[in-house]
Amino acid sequence: MEMKERLQGLIEKNQLGMLRMRLEALHAPDVAELMEACTRERALLVFRLLPKERAAETFAYLPPERQQALIDAMRAGEVRQVMEHLASDDAADFLEEAPAGVVKKALDGADRERRAQLAALLRYPENSAGSLMTADFVELHDRLTVGQALDCVRKRGPRAENADVLYTIDNTRHLTGAVRLIDLVCAEQIHRVSDVRDARVVSVGTQVDQEEVAAAFRRYDVAQMPVVDSEGRLVGMITVDDVLDVIEREDTEDMEIMAAITPQEKPYLSIGPLQLAKSRIIWLLVLMISATISGRIISAFEQVLQSAVMLTAFIPMLMDTGGNCGSQASVMVTRGLALGEILPKDALRVLWKELRVSLIVGAALAAVNFARILLFEGVGAQVALVVSLSLLATVICAKCAGALLPLLAKQCRLDPAVMASPLITTLVDTASLLVYFCFAKAMLGL
Amino acid sequence: MEMKERLQGLIEKNQLGMLRMRLEALHAPDVAELMEACTRERALLVFRLLPKERAAETFAYLPPERQQALIDAMRAGEVRQVMEHLASDDAADFLEEAPAGVVKKALDGADRERRAQLAALLRYPENSAGSLMTADFVELHDRLTVGQALDCVRKRGPRAENADVLYTIDNTRHLTGAVRLIDLVCAEQIHRVSDVRDARVVSVGTQVDQEEVAAAFRRYDVAQMPVVDSEGRLVGMITVDDVLDVIEREDTEDMEIMAAITPQEKPYLSIGPLQLAKSRIIWLLVLMISATISGRIISAFEQVLQSAVMLTAFIPMLMDTGGNCGSQASVMVTRGLALGEILPKDALRVLWKELRVSLIVGAALAAVNFARILLFEGVGAQVALVVSLSLLATVICAKCAGALLPLLAKQCRLDPAVMASPLITTLVDTASLLVYFCFAKAMLGL
Fold first, then answer.
1. For position A255, what pLDDT does the model report?
2. Which residues, listed in sequence order, are joined to residue B169 by a DSSP beta bridge?
3. Residue A2: pLDDT band by 50, 70, 90 thresholds?
4. What's residue B290's pLDDT?
5. Of A196, A220, A239, which marks where a domain is finished?
């Protein structure tokens, strides 16, 4: 914090020598944060003080608008240098967001090979393994000796995004295995790569969804993973830093969908109120309209309520408890599905579990509720019984619906998170009111 | 899937030679999954077919009960071998969970140094950087030449959990920087380590909370990070695979707390119904009791309802919409706080944003609602106006409360997730009913 203010001071006073020295001690994300807090002119000034490689690294951490403004403001030679040193996946991410004019300027100085590489990366569908991968990796031919392989690593490794694990290929560029750099360093120079590599390498296809990629990283505890095309040929590598971003985004998305929000790409504070309102209103409208079904049920039983208005007082408690029970079950099942801990085929096991849970929970809540009404509400035991039995039935409905709907969604290839709390709350409301009024009518003879 | 069944077949038919060969092609987590699906005797049989190092690796992926059963069933010599090859952080995790008898057996064959190392790891508080780190890393003294450093890596690297980045220390074991193995491989042998290392290394203290560790990994895009004690001396290293686990656990925990569930350590399907019921009932009770406040409000306005029972029909819609609006705001703010995108000092900015959002959303919903009531409900324009104005007020209350309560919780060093949907729903219910009845009383002259 203090550091940042001191740097801001140096920028304002134009003490460039001192500033350059101070910048050297900073990491790329910290420099990017500093630049974001400056005006565009000052950000360019800071950017120009950075050594070439660090400038490109920092560029990758800036938000798209800032990247585009920088490219816009730089000379052709500067742009070429940034683009040259930018990791290929970061370059592709930038190009994807940029308007045509900026793209043209950014690619003007690039050689043919680089253009082809970036064009290839840009062709993969969003959220696929192909769109996450980098083309800056080191591949080793099986036939090389360890000594030759190390020479190859020395030549290409420093440019690669990560050269800790090297992937091995055969004559047809098919992925044959992986070898850790440390194992190459430790092996005898005259061995063949094919003798030291591990053939048990986990890879993903270019078309695989990023959620599956994240699951594979989690399962196999790796820091990078090779990407192969549909024929098994090595085409790229995914590094774990990008997977961390995917997990953060996916989890945020799930939480937002579960709270009836259309997911947003940007952080909360940088979304305008109109955009925020848009992301929230659709579901609110849908849910508001469907909540009128509960209203219809109440209207239908107006006669019952008219003769016993005190029954109305228990409606909020019934509705809230039902909603809460439903979201507990749906959130646990949705998360279990997302992590692969629950599969659609487990539906019956889940239902059986929730049935038992809801009996225990429902009975306990109903008992407490019965006692509370008798002691504090000053109504008869019959009313207390009606409310408590309705509560038990509501809890059972809520938990079973909460558990089954996400599973059903998954089975229909919808996002299970859509079935979470708000939708289930609305459903459960209807069910609980119906049960409540029917019980009241039958047991109180209204 | 098919592979697993074929392996199960080999186990049943006791075809050990074939089984051993097949196991060689599997990764440790896959072998662990296979063992989990077997009886304990068969799991032990599979385990004994694995080469020593892979056996230890597989051991780390087994759930605690399975680990304890294996150690229990193995001979002293076998136990020693597993414990020797187990990464120190995995060994510490296992020892932490195991009962005294198993711990004694596991440590019986360990030498003094290893015991001291594990004891040190076990001393760190749960969820701290110290409890996540491994002691199996390679440190290089600044004074070494690159050639000497590579010799050191060759000797100790293969035993380390990760030797892709090596940490450098001075005479007093203080962390001075980091050097990538690839840079050592590329450097001139006669250079000093101090010439090739990068002094800008991000480290964490042993006492730092795991959420902060995860945030640092996310921010700096690293695959491992050194851990230092309070005096800045290098004591361990955290690898990104453990951070992935932390993020998964923390996100699950946040989702569970937001759905009023006491967080559970185990995956859904392996938790018994009684345990599940216990994790859910506390919050349900608290919320059920607090929902009776809404009931009290309704009782207090019984007179109003008696004279206009049709007002009851709009209660569910008002309550549901208020609850949904509140959870939208609270989930976005809670997630923003968890990711460090929102800080408590942003409270006013957040409030201002939510106020504008709620005006837009509230006005739109109220308008739709007004039209709908007039067109389909067959009640007067005055009633429609009361309901719509109450709706607007409810939306504003809900969004502001939903945004502010998590911020308040954070400020008071509570978990912001506790303030999410269910608690806010209960609060908003009370507010919306109060507003509704007051408006009705005043505007309809009841």
1. 86
2. B141, B175
3. low
4. 82
5. A239
Note the pLDDT tens digit of each residue in A306-324. 888 788 889 888 988 998 8
Residue B273 has pLDDT above 90, yes or no: no
Q: What 3-state class would DSSP assign to A142?
A: coil
**Chain mean pLDDT for chain A:** 89
* Residue A177 β-bridge partners: A168
List the CATH number of the domain containing B118: 1.25.60.10
Q: Are residues B234 and B303 in the same domain?
A: no
Residues of B within 8 A of A247 (CB-CB) are: 244, 247-248, 251
- Assess if residue A18 is contained within a domain: yes
What local confidence, expressed as pLDDT, does residue A254 receive? 87
Within 13 A of A83's CA, how many CA atoms are on the CB side? Answer: 27
Nearest CB neighbour to B316, from listed A221, A240, A295: A295
Q: Which of residues 350-389 of A touch B (CB under 8 A)?
A: 350, 353, 356-357, 360-361, 364-365, 368-369, 372
Predicted pLDDT at B421: 65
Nearest CB to A317; choose among B185, B295, B335: B295
Residues A220, A290, single domain; the answer is: no
> Any chain A CB within 8 A of the CB of B422?
yes
The model's confidence at residue A421, banded by pLDDT at 50, 70 and 90, is low
B174 CA: distance to closest CA in chain A (Å) = 18
- Is the CB of A3 inside 8 Å of chain B's CB atoms? no
Q: What CATH number is attached to the domain comprising B204?
A: 3.10.580.10
Flag whether B217 is in a domain: yes
Task: Render pLDDT for A192-229 as a digit per residue (tens, 0 to 9).
Answer: 999 999 999 999 999 999 999 999 999 999 999 999 99
Residues 239-298 of B with CB under 8 A from A: 239-241, 243-245, 247-248, 251-252, 254-256, 258-261, 267-269, 273-274, 276-277, 280-281, 283-285, 287-289, 291-292, 294-296, 298
Do both A204 and A293 map to the same domain? no
**pLDDT tens digits, A11-24:** 888 888 888 888 88
List, as ranges, residues 182-201 from A with C-beta within 8 Å of B. Answer: 182-183, 185-186, 199-200
Q: How many domains does chain B have?
A: 3
Measured CA angle at B32 (ends B26, B33), to 5 deg = 90
The rounded distance, in Å, linking the Cα atoms of A150 and A24 is 30
| Rounded CA Rg of chain A | 30
Indicate whether B289 and B397 sit together in one domain. Answer: yes
Does B148 contact A at CB distance below 8 Å?
no
Query: Mean pLDDT, to the nearest integer, of A122-130?
Result: 91
Q: What is the dihedral of CA A392, A396, A401, A403, to 10 degrees?
A: 130
Q: Is there a single domain that holds both residue A278 and residue A420?
A: yes
What the block records as the tokens of B413 is 């060093």
Domain coverage including residue A336: 268-444
Q: Which residue has the tokens 């409208």?
A: A285
A316 contacts B425? CB cut-off 8 A: no
Could you give the CA distance from residue A4 to residue A26 in angstroms, rounded to a whole number?
A: 10
Residue A425 pLDDT > 70: yes
Q: Which two tokens stand for residue B71?
A: 């150690």
B223: nearest CB among A240, A276, A321? A240
Q: Which of A186, A331, A369 sits opposite B154 (nearest CB)?
A: A186
Interface of B with A in 150-179 (CB under 8 A): 150, 153-154, 157-158, 162-164
Closest chain A C-alpha to B255 CA, distance in angstroms = 7
pLDDT value at residue B2:
66
ipTM: 0.84
Residues 6+ apart with CB under 8 A from B415: B257, B409
Say how far apart CA A137 and CA A223 lie, in whole Å: 13
The pLDDT, as a whole number, for residue A7 is 84
Taking a C-beta distance cutoff of 8 angstroms, is the pair B226, B212 a contact?
no
Q: Are B311 and B431 members of one domain?
A: yes
**Is residue A258 domain-resident?**
no
Task: For chain A, give the percent of residues with pLDDT over 70.
Answer: 99
**Rounded average pLDDT over B49-55:** 90
A325-356 per-position pLDDT tens digit: 988 898 899 999 888 889 989 999 999 999 99
